[in-house]
């Protein structure tokens, strides 16, 4: 096999077929500036949109004999082998390069797997014979070659032009290139950095006006590059609050830090707020309690943060709610400080504010509650027993008490408050898993709440709220009133009008981008799915292998848009397949899901 890289700018390429496989080929060709023509009777919506925007041309019909001959490159990507073969034969006869999907024998070229750090590309190929090995190698290289290589190669290209422009002889040129390479590439860690202007001037032996002045640090520049330039060895740690569970309650800055991180250390409670589009090479460390596994001890968590920072990895410590509200964020920050590791804190929406908002409980209210106390009855200060002054709190009727980690201690708390003089009829609530689909709320009175909680079987994570403002919940309880409250739906294809409509109707949406990332798998596994919305056979295929993972165990309903999608799902053995109209709008789909009305 002879490897070659093709210039496709402005070249006419044909893709026969318009499903998921074809879509990927089209996207790849478009990225290279090719003129893409698609022929297929049935078309996935994404390709339709591209055609509508004039980015590709689309012929909605069957492939016509010999039309492959008019192109420089052809992809046969239909799901019908005989059509693919026909395309292969036509193209081959005309001397046109052709690739048939999943049919190595009918390919005159194969596509390598690649790691892209544009304009750097690393291609891996096995002549189409050992795809499993190629796939795994690609994943390995994807992890080993960080994003900084893209900036590095650009800097190298600029450096090359500069050296060529100096008009020095070949020996000196190579010497300049070696200086650049040796100083900017860490061979052991396979990391790279962008050199400063003054370094480059030194390597080329040319004094510049800017000599000695380091380049402006850019946000995109790699952590490794920055560290090398400043002589630092460690990367900073961000303690980020994930919010109470609903993905949309993560702050903008929190998301920014996550997307730039090399490693993320997250708690179980924070899992559902991980961005599904987190880059696949981000290291993920779960330190929360998972079924059958004890939580990682606090010392090990801090040791892990210190290790990652010392390895030079930008690290996000993602914690449920706010890092400083009963989250041991203070302890982690102190350890980092003591170890000389730079850190910052990105606050989050504490569950005391998020879960209450979702349950319809304003924590302050004019004329009713002028104080909020966040407390836990769980902790003993200096081993002298619980230190909350229930007697004093009991005397403060114009306040709201929000109790974290409060399921087990609630009976004792209620007793202490009543003994301290609080009115037993004070409104009181317990909220379990606030802001996510599985949220449950019990509203009662102080003296009755402990029993009601046991009766309803509420469990951690849950918090109690005691105070007059709890009485507003029956009117302000907007979330439970939404038609799709309680639905947790996976929707491939990222955020769209459809996902926004379903979310507005109250569903928790896990909007996964193809291909499903490790972070998206963590999010899916955070709670059982109730359904999955699939818009094309390609989406069915994309998620097919995912169904064995956790999150899927309760046989979610498979809502399929269009007959072909439903047919593919049934063929692949999906459970509870429900077919709905292909062109259905978000609000109508919400109605269908609520009423569970569907075509047979
Ligand atoms: N730092 C977190 C609290 C960590 S302590 C915050 O600011 O929210 C863990 C406790 O928080 C749980 O036992 C529970 O009482 C509460 N909690 C966390 N997430 C919750 C949620 N979604 N709904 C209700 N309570 C929650």
How would you describe the overall organization of this protein?
- The chain is an alpha/beta fold.
- It has 5 domains: 100 residues, Rossmann fold; 57 residues; 121 residues, Tetrapyrrole methylase, N-terminal domain (Cobalt-precorrin-4 Transmethylase, domain 1, 3-Layer(aba) Sandwich); 124 residues, Methyltransferase, Cobalt-precorrin-4 Transmethylase, Domain 2; 106 residues, Rossmann fold, CATH 3.40.50.10090.
- Helices cover 34% and strands 18% of the residues.
- Helix 5 runs antiparallel to helix 6, helix 17 crosses helix 21 and helix 19 runs parallel beside helix 20.
- It is flat, with a radius of gyration of 29 Å.
- The two termini are 50 Å apart.
- The structure holds S-adenosyl-L-homocysteine.
- The site of S-adenosyl-L-homocysteine has 24 residues, from helix 12 and strand 19.
